[in-house]
Amino acid sequence: MDANQKKLLAETEGIIDQIKKQHWLNVHFRAFELANNAWKEHIRANARVGAKEVDSPAGAVLDDRLN
């Protein structure tokens, strides 16, 4: 398991813990944060593929804007 997978597993376990404690607002915020990060990574991956296909630095520019 790589570092990113370990981080995601820890986040998921944290959400499960918040559910058990019935801290619903925390659950919603953490779930939103995970979904938002996944969406950003999806956009970055598509930008990198697109930048490679057209041989442009668009992927790097998009990475900077999303961070």
Verbal overview:
The chain has 67 residues and is an all-alpha fold. It has one domain. Helix content is 87%, strand content 0%. The chain has three helices and no strands. α1 packs antiparallel against α2 and α2 runs antiparallel to α3. The mean pLDDT is 78.
Specify the helix fraction band.
Answer: over 70%
User: End-to-end span in angstroms?
Assistant: 25 Å
Total number of helices: 3
Overall number of structural domains: 1
Number of E-type strands: 0
Give a quick account of the main beta sheet: strands, pairing sense, barrel closure: none
The averaged pLDDT comes out at 78
- Which class of secondary structure composition applies to the elements? mainly alpha
Strand content: under 5%
Low-confidence stretches: none
Indicate the radius of gyration in whole angstroms: 16 Å
Q: How do the SSEs run, as a string of H and E?
A: HHH
How does the SSE layout of this entry go?
Layout: H1 3-20, H2 24-54, H3 58-66
Helix pairs in contact: 1-2, 2-3
Please name the defining characteristics of this protein.
single chain; 67 residues; mainly alpha; 87% helix
In short:
By secondary structure, the protein is mostly helical. The chain is built from three helices and no strands.
